[in-house]
Write a structure and sequence with these properties.
This protein is an alpha+beta fold and 153 residues long. The protein folds into 3 domains: 50 residues, no CATH class; 45 residues, no CATH class; 57 residues, no CATH class. Helices cover 35% and strands 13% of the residues. It contains 5 helices and 4 strands, in the order αααββαβαβ. The strands form 2 sheets. The protein has a two-stranded antiparallel ribbon. α5 links the parallel β3 and β4. The protein is extended, with a radius of gyration of 21 Å. The protein starts with 34 loop residues before the first helix and ends in a 24-residue tail after the last strand.
Length: 153
């Protein structure tokens, strides 16, 4: 059985070394679950997507956004502005006028606030909640007593 990728368990960020762009990072000490080691073919295939002008420009703008919105402090890297403002800036740089928002029903109030902010900033927002479609949980094998809302709901 294939080992699964586990970036969240990595003891060190081997894929983001502080080296010059013309140098090759070393993955010799990377753990066996490192996807850069495990999925070389998939990574090479994904890199081909950067040959598409729209994908390359999107990635370039994302990197510029990262540079503009983070700063290096004595305590480490931190954000300069709230993430919602970063999202707004990035959407504008890309010329996006319509944004999608997918959210959990438990975050309905937060989704309303985000939608309100984005609309006030001139975006059209399309949103979908995890409960869209009103599919009963019983369809996936959940028993009534296993539902947060309880039996009968």
């Amino acid at each position: 059985m294939d080992e699964k990728a586990q970036c969240a368990k990595c003891p060190e960020i081997f894929c983001y070394p502080a080296i010059a762009a013309d140098q090759e990072p070393s993955f010799e000490k990377a753990p066996s679950f490192c996807p850069t080691k495990l999925k070389k073919d998939l990574i090479e295939k994904a890199l081909l997507e950067y040959d598409r002008e729209d994908i390359r420009e999107f990635a370039r703008l994302a990197s510029v956004q990262e540079f503009e919105c983070y700063e290096l402090t004595p305590d480490g890297i931190r954000t300069k502005i709230p993430r919602i403002e970063e999202t707004i800036q990035f959407a504008r740089k890309n010329g996006f006028r319509k944004l999608g928002l997918a959210f959990c029903a438990g975050l309905m109030n937060e989704a309303r606030m985000v939608t309100d902010i984005l609309e006030r900033k001139g975006f059209e927002v399309v949103s979908v909640c995890c409960k869209a479609g009103a599919i009963p949980k019983e369809m996936i094998g959940i028993k009534p007593e296993e539902k947060i809302a309880g039996p009968g709901l």
